[in-house]
Specification:
By secondary structure, this protein is α/β, with parallel strands linked by helices. It is 41% helix and 22% strand. Strands 5-8-2-1-11-13-14-12 form an 8-stranded mixed beta sheet, with helices on both faces. A 4-stranded mixed beta sheet has the order 6-7-10-9. The longest helix has 26 residues. It is globular. The relative contact order is 0.16.
Length: 287
């Protein structure tokens, strides 16, 4: 396909998404899983191009592998329950240090290399992410109780790209480790986003976990619930899938799970006819 053909194919999608908010959850696995190219730099290029053509991207990031690395370095063992890290006071301190002091600045700097538009935001800033303890012996692991999107809306209206780290606080100011997938879904709902896109280290959902040939390209929220109930979706994918279901049922028009290691995967999904990965839609919707 020639360059002109690519641009012509992209044109209707540029028109469709101009002025629309797209929340992109950039997982720590995608950051850590670079292959022959610098995936973070290519991701940053995609975000800047989306911004340049009128899309309003919001980046929400995780940092699981980076937190694991730091915990191992200081001799703290991690325990997970249904994809969520059991978080004591020491672990919470390291989570904040890694997300706010390492991963968030890394993503902001990568985006600003291609266009000075990114601004780092913590869930603690301006009450963006209010949290309540999840309980179940998880320690300082929280659930989102409320999103205050005002700071994000102001940044978007001023032409910036917010990059959100997912440490939330309760009414007393206690910090909580909140699953980044869940936060991304809640932010997408609060912003009435057109789409939410999850970038990770797999190409999408599969009917058979170990068989790439069984990739699910499109599925409705109701159909996805059945895959969770029958155990097809398990472990660390559960929070991601639950947030997809909640987001599309809450008004987001589509959720996507993509392999963030693929060069320019955001542009392939948003601006081409074929798309890649898995798309989750509301009940009865296939668009």
């Amino acid at each position: 396909m020639s360059t002109a053909d690519v641009l012509v194919e992209a044109l209707p999608y540029i028109r469709r998404f101009a002025g629309k908010t797209v929340v992109v959850k950039y997982g720590g696995n995608a950051i850590a899983g670079t292959s022959e190219h610098d995936a973070l730099s290519l991701f940053a290029q995609d975000i800047v191009l989306m911004h340049a053509i009128g899309i309003r991207p919001v980046v929400v990031h995780g940092g699981g592998p980076q937190i694991n690395e730091m915990l191992a370095r200081v001799g703290v063992e991690s325990t997970f329950v249904d994809g969520r890290r059991v978080t004591d006071a020491q672990t919470m301190e390291i989570v904040r240090m890694v997300l706010l002091g390492q991963v968030n600045p890394q993503i902001v700097a990568a985006i600003n290399t291609h266009g000075t538009v990114a601004v780092g935001v913590s869930g603690e800033d301006a009450g963006l992410i209010r949290a309540v303890p999840r309980g179940d012996g998880l320690g300082f692991v929280g659930d989102v109780s409320r999103i205050n999107p005002e700071v994000l809306i102001r940044l978007l209206d001023d032409g910036f790209v917010p990059v959100v780290s997912t440490v939330g606080v309760d009414e007393s100011g206690q910090a909580y480790n909140i699953n980044a997938d869940s936060v991304a879904g809640a932010i997408a709902e609060a912003l009435h986003a057109e789409k939410i896109i999850y970038l990770t280290d797999i190409e999408g959902l599969r009917k058979v976990v170990d068989d790439p040939a069984t990739l699910i390209q499109r599925i409705t929220a109701d159909e996805l619930v059945l895959l969770v109930d029958n155990g097809t979706v398990a472990g660390g994918m559960i929070p991601k899938v639950e947030s997809c279901i909640q987001a599309v049922r809450g008004g987001v028009k589509g959720a996507h799970i993509l392999d963030g290691r693929i060069a320019h995967v955001l542009l392939l999904e948003l601006l081409t006819d074929s798309g890649v990965g898995t798309m989750i839609t509301p009940k009865g919707s296939r668009s």
